[in-house]
Amino acid sequence: MPLLFGIMLSSFNVAYGSITPVKIHGFVNYDTVNGYNSQSALVQREDGSLIGTTCSGGINSVGTIFVASTNGSQFETLLSFDMSNGGYIGGGYIAGPIFGKDGNLYGTTRSGGANLAGEVYQETGSGVNVFSFTGGDDGQFPYAGLVLGVDGNLYGTTTSGGLFTFLDPNNVGYGTVFQITAAGSFNTLHSFNGSDGSNSRGNLVQGKDGVLYGTTVGGGASGWGTVFKITTNGIFTTLYSFTGNGDGARPVGGLVQGSDNNFYGTTYYRGAYTSSDSTGNGYGTAFKITSTGILTTLTSFNNTNGANPNSTLVLGRDGNFYGTTQYGLTDYPPIPGIIANFGTIIKMTPSGTITTLTSFDYMSGYGAYPNGLMLATDGNLYGTCQNGGNYFGASGGIIFRLNLPPRPVFGGTSATGGKLKTTLSGLSSGSTVVLQVSTDLKNWTPVKTNSVLTGSTLTFTNTINPALKGQYFRAMLQ
Description:
- The protein is mostly beta strands.
- It contains no helices and 38 strands.
- The protein has two domains: 5-10 and 408-477, Immunoglobulin-like (Sandwich); 22-402, YVTN repeat-like/Quinoprotein amine dehydrogenase (Methylamine Dehydrogenase, Chain H, 7 Propeller), CATH 2.130.10.10.
- The chain has strands at 5-9, 22-28, 43-44, 50-54, 64-68, 75-80, 98-99, 105-109, 119-123, 128-132, 147-148, 154-158, 176-180, 186-191, 205-206, 212-216, 226-230, 236-241, 256-257, 263-267, 285-289, 295-300, 307-309, 314-315, 321-327, 330-331, 339-340, 344-348, 354-359, 368-375, 381-387, 395-402, 409-416, 419-425, 432-438, 445-451, 457-463, 471-477.
- Strands 23, 24, 25, 28 and 29 form a five-stranded antiparallel sheet that branches. Strands 1-38-35-36 form a four-stranded mixed sheet, with no helix packed on it. Strands 2-32-31-30 form a four-stranded antiparallel sheet, with no helix packed on it.
- A hairpin with a 5-residue loop joins strand 28 and strand 29.
- The radius of gyration is 24 Å and the shape is globular.
- It starts with a strand and ends with a strand.
- The model is unreliable at 1-17, 84-89 and 331-337 (pLDDT under 50).
């Protein structure tokens, strides 16, 4: 009976070093057609093109929805928002859209709508107001975008309003979690009361368990923000309250679930380096948290590796996380000795080791103050910057691409004469590769270690234990 074996590829940790972003489109300040000042992540269409929003400019000067090709050869404005006529499409801060179950784009605007308290919109070519917030029990001023649940419904949060506005000394409320069904019905799932959180700004994420997870910038036991979970029928649990010390404070971005089923996120302020920050606020942290609320602080930002992470992390194909920081000091290349402070793109391992992939410098064409990232189908990262992109011109921000190294792949695999022979291609010169074997896909044992000294291909030849059946092999870059 022939031996059974499989090939698996996982946990590739490639040493990227510094990567220069590619500007694929530059926005111009005060552009009354195409808009400018994009402050949200992108989404990709089935044809590979990128869709995003701007918060300024356009025909009505309150932002746009645009589509752009990944190589920058095409750019088109799909919709100009209109704040002036209330019941149409609002303006102000405009979160990145998502695709609904029906294939149309859905999103939120922080202001505008019939009551100037924000809205949920649908883009079908002309713009449709799905729901206008009243500023009452339903909430107001949604900052986060929407998430499409497995049930086909849309879920989101508002930063203020809700049932407990009367408890707020500022009389603006603490915000809500809401649901919009596929049929268009609006339901408030939860109203924050301050002690369980307030001012949720990061997108919700639906875990593998079907529960929604999110963060709040304020509120909680110490007033520095929370992590929470809520079922799709409104059962709410505060998982963790930040103390404002070494664990960080003010989580602005949402959460992402890792391959280990834990959730990963960042805080905007505090952490281990608060004392080195002249403002006393610190530079933020990165953390992981279990679905039951056990939080581990993975690392603290120190300004040289980025400062004040401002978006939701993205899980890469290599098992690492990618994200942006709003600030971070770095040498300014065009003028030696000058320090720039315009944001970074970082890679973080699940254990919290951070690598700065790029630092933005405003005037060299690569923009300033990056927003969230999107991992596209071509394996590269795409994002936008709020400002910069031109030397001394009208710097209205950019759309950029960060080209990641190609993922190594198996090829030419054969098992003859009791030996496994396979080739790994797409490796970096000098990479150390470990071949591991398993019979249950859970427990792995190293069987061979090689170093790629030159070139980009490595061939393994390893003896297969004939006493074992159903052997699986994987290669890991160390």
